[in-house]
Task: structure prediction
Amino acid sequence: MNYFDSHEQLTAHFLALQLVAYADGALQPSEEAFLNNLLSVYRARDGGLANLQLLSDADANPPLEEVLESFTTRRQKMILLQDLYSMATLSEGVERSELDVIERIAAALGVSENELQELGRLNEQVLEANKRLATFLFN
Result:
């Protein structure tokens, strides 16, 4: 299902994911693979994204707040934040630096601290449930 329809939203989504991936100082192989796959999908879907590419380093500081203005509904904002939490879990564990980026983006989107905390709590529960499921299935 497509939650992001505009060129601006796809660009902002990809950029925000990269900021979380780079937040711990390095792009992990699992994060890079995910981002490259998503980049291929986005380029195929929107020819205007042909020049979209991975950030070159962790110090890149794009004008994210301006780009995030394209997310206007609560649903779009929550889905973006959910995707950012998912990106953070691709590395060995969720780092404080990744949470800081997510919190900064949530603030720029106008999402309340209570909503962000609830989303974080739900993500922790899902992650734990997935770990228990994997243990059950593969042990």
Summary: The helical segments are 7-22, 29-45, 64-67, 74-88, 96-109, 113-138.
